[in-house]
Amino acid sequence: MDTRELQTFVTVCETRNYQKAAVLLQYAPSTIFKHVQTLENELGTRLLIHENRMLKITEEGKNFLPHAQAILAEYKASIQKSERSAASLTVGGCELNVEYSLTDLFTGFARANPGIHLNMITSPNASVPDMVRSGQVDIGFFYGHSAQHRELETHRMYREPAYLVASRTNPLIGRAKLHYEELSGLEFVYPHDSCCFVRMLMPELQKRQVKLKKITFLGGMHFVAREAGTGNALTLAPENALEQFDEIYDLVPLDLNEEPMWAWESILVGKRAEMPEVKKLIEYAQRWSEGHSVERDFQVTL
């Protein structure tokens, strides 16, 4: 049983709202759902339910709540002493990075460096450079094309493609060598319109005069994947997230006879570039990327 799951459950109970809990805990909404579902699976019972459009705590949830609060209180008290001497590192990235593509990177770094506490903050991808510049995060992970970012040191990790994915029940799955023109009349969902992959896809569709039925930006990847997984909507997934999209949401890539959309996975650092913890994460990411990237090219641009 993870203390993060317990804290999520307690916070949702206090706010009676998943979105408010996500803001307070600085998690993506999909993470809030995952934490609650994991906890319910471990306990073998429902803790929270929706009834008449209201979030309610079940009787089992009410019984478990004081135990969760007591465990958290004891846990927080036990780590206060160690936190005084332990280092911390605040990492920013888009939801696709933090929750999917780079999950193994961050969990592996945490295991290899138990003395460094990682504080993960998710945001729209386009906001990551400003988060690094302002000092809101110590280090950022960013999808994009530019090799330079004003006032930032850029470490390019690898270049990878993104694919259009859909539910296995989508009529296009199984058809070979599709062209963009065959997407006319379909729906497209994604968290934010600022994503570099979206900015590549949409102009290409417009150039081909492909008219989608509907384009919706839902704010969180969990909502996007759930929408695509239960209907005929399309969404985008970078190559390093394909396995998780398949396992969790049953989403698979279309067989497109088109040039793939490529972007760089990069690390951005600013005024805290000399922090020992930042340097350690960059070095670890360099080693990690050698075994997980499509096109490796670890470079530093000032």
Structural descriptors:
alpha/beta, 11 helices, eight-stranded mixed β-sheet, 3 domains, two-stranded antiparallel sheet, Arc Repressor Mutant, subunit A, about 300 residues, D-Maltodextrin-Binding Protein, domain 2, disordered C terminus
Short description:
The chain has 302 residues and is of the alpha/beta class.
Describe how the helices and strands are arranged.
Elements: H1 3-15, H2 18-25, H3 29-43, E1 48-51, E2 54-57, H4 59-85, E3 87-93, H5 95-101, H6 103-112, E4 116-122, H7 128-134, E5 139-144, E6 153-167, E7 187-190, H8 196-207, E8 214-217, H9 221-230, E9 235-238, H10 242-249, E10 251-253, E11 261-269, H11 276-292, E12 295-301
| SSE-based structural type | alpha/beta
Overall pLDDT, averaged?
86
Number of DSSP strand runs: 12
| Main beta sheet strand tally, sense and closure | 8 strands, mixed
Say what the CATH topology of the largest domain is. Answer: D-Maltodextrin-Binding Protein, domain 2
CATH architecture classification name of the largest domain: 3-Layer(aba) Sandwich
> Total number of helical segments?
11
Report the top-level CATH class of the largest domain: Alpha Beta
Shape designation: globular
Full CATH superfamily name of the largest domain:
Periplasmic binding protein-like II
Distance N terminus to C terminus? Answer: 43 Å
Helix content: 40-55%
- Could you say how many structural domains there are in total? 3
Instruction: Give me the Rg, rounded.
Output: 21 Å
List unreliable stretches of 5+ residues.
296-302
